[in-house]
Request: fold
Amino acid sequence: MKPGVTLRLPTEYLPDHFDPDAWDDHALHVIPLGGVGEIGMNNMLYCQENTRILIDCGALFPDDSLYGVDLIVPDYTYLLSEPEKLKAIILTHGHEDHIGSLPFVLKEVNVPVYGPPYALGIVRRKLEEHDLPHKPQLIPIHPGDKLNLGLFQFRFLRVNHSIPDCLSVVIDTPHGRLLHTGDFRMDVTPAPQDHFDYAGFGEIGDQGVTCLLSDSTNVEVPGFTASEQDVGRALLDVFMEAKGKVFVSCFASSIPRIQEILSVCKKTGRHIHFSGRSMQTHLGVAQQTGYVKLPYDLLIPEEAVSQLPPDKVCVVLTGSQGEFRSSLVRIATGEHKQIKIQEGDTVIFSSRIIPGHERAINRLIDTLYRQGAEVVTSKNAQVHTSGHGHAGELLTMLNLVRPKHFIPVHGEWRHLVKHGRLAQKVGIESRNVHLIQSGDVVQFNEEQCSLVGRVVTGRVFVDGKGVGDVAMPIIQQRRKMAETGLIVTILVLEGETGKILSGPDIISRGVTLVEDEQSQKFFTEAKQRILRLLDELPPRSIQDVETLKEEMRLSVRRVFHKALERKPVVIPVVIQM
Reply:
């Protein structure tokens, strides 16, 4: 067994496949460090003898329950346990859930990063925001390119997704051929540069594939995804009916969608303004890589939005998830200095709802209606299509590749289970469908596949400049303060006698009190409780600061729990002079 690997007992989901005694140092090992059993944070490590290759280096955005956390990255303990073995990082595309952790890894190791030009353009701008100890080597790769790293040979196939320049990775090893799809869909009428390489996948399938690792995100959705051209036609219909300004909110990375919006603006005679920092970043990279051509005769600055006739204006902006301080939220709440929502304007949400953002989006839509806007979403028009293939496309991939073994990835547990069932429908034997979790070590030895161990994995919270400084106990403390409020009690004592020199003083934040008169009553009772406590405690306990603080905390909390049926966080402060 290699150092740094921790084993676990067999689990219910694959009891017959877990075989730590079968570990072979010369075999191929595939280890998901994230992105399996969850949406986001995609990191897949391929290991063979002294060579480790990481495919994708993604992060996860926190939901509202993780107070103050900016980003979630994987626990890279195993990846960095033998840093000299990590030879390269390969990126399939430029979404945050595939590149967001890259700065944190590159701070620790200096390895080349291979990726399609668009993804590297986003990475280059991202890395400018981080103080790296070295200049990273960013090497572009293209469909059809071949790359040799140790015993690995890589080939790259073009796939279609909601962001430009996306690749699947064919991995040839002494122990068989693997195909890592990355995120994909099969848009039959995409932008010219983003055609899905059906012939390439069919050829690889004819040659034989030991294992397919395939995106599972939309396995629950039957049929096929709509084309971007279908979305373009739906957007045109909305634009034609709109009487005022049109606002289109979408992900900044959705360059194919932005191309459709530009086309619609040209057809309807509307000028266009792009709002939001991330929108400007992606547009800049898209121009550099040739994925978008901006019609400068239609572009207008921010101040011109209110100067032109409303029916001649379109604003493309971020904020489709109701993100705090995003362009759309600031405009909807009247906080934007230049751009205002007026009666008769139309707001189009051209994006999916990320789980956990439903309440924020619903509040935003309600605010827009209060401003007199008409709101269009994918519920009442075909103004969005997913970047992840539906069940029909996943079946097509399985039929093109026809692998011996199958590992569903990029999805929560139910997605992996249902994708595994699809694989069995096309003839893959159930014993060759492998459901794994992040951290599992999958071994390929002469095309035989088995689960042989588990490495340390988990989530690391990024909070401001701190990486890993904030753990769940701190998050729980923040959650507790947010739910029940905070009370600070301050008492100054003479060190030798225990005589009160100042206080007790009580400061509260976020504690719900009914009226000012009653508030004063609660504070007075809490102070009296502390004074009685000082009379009741023996002198030795009063001089024991930690014991005194705990007694004060319990006493004050009892007062407010009795009055309000809540238990606020109480922080006692005792100063001895």
